[in-house]
User: What shape does this take?
Amino acid sequence: MSSPVVLIPGAPVLVPELSGAAAADSARQVEHACELIREASGERTRVVVVGTDEQLRAGDGMRSSLIRWGANVGVGRPQDPLAGPDTVSDAALIAWWLLDQSGSHLPRTFSGVHGESPTPPEAEEGDLVVVVADGPASLTPRAPVPEDPRGVALNAALADWLRTGGDLPDPGQDVAEDIGWWSRPAWRALAGLVGHHRAVDSVSWAPFGVGYHAARWAPGAASGPAVMHPTGAGA
Assistant: This one.
């Protein structure tokens, strides 16, 4: 692994303009995710964003908006071209927003992944790779998918994988659909990028019944102690 890798959540509910007061439940963790981006951005020259996208869209960063979710919040670098409403994937839009929140001015590109064997882009020297992925959406009765103990178990296993490394926990596509683990291709691409290395810093939380995770891997991250943060609904 020659480039730093950062995992970020991809949920519109994290944006205050989209969720109002509910965003306060994740404000501390969102800032932590932004700090992970800042820490990994030193001496980088480009950000390569990877996210689940059935259309497998790819291309250099463009300005856009979160209007598809109900608020005309602009995202993207001011100097980048303005994209049409369907040009930028959901994962890229939330990544652009988090990159903006972190103060990143690096050029951006997006690579969509899908299917059983997603191929992450080959990072070039000077790249920072940012993977957009969420855990299952079936953790509590208020979740988008009916509460499912398989989702609860998987989300805990994903948080543990970030802290300890090893094989990515993956129950398969059929179970993933049942428990609302829609970003499974991005997780599989992430595992392809970081191998069995543990993250050097991670945080997991689930205020709305959906698993959110943020983590950072540095080149050679298999050595050195991991920084662990609380998991669970109030983390």
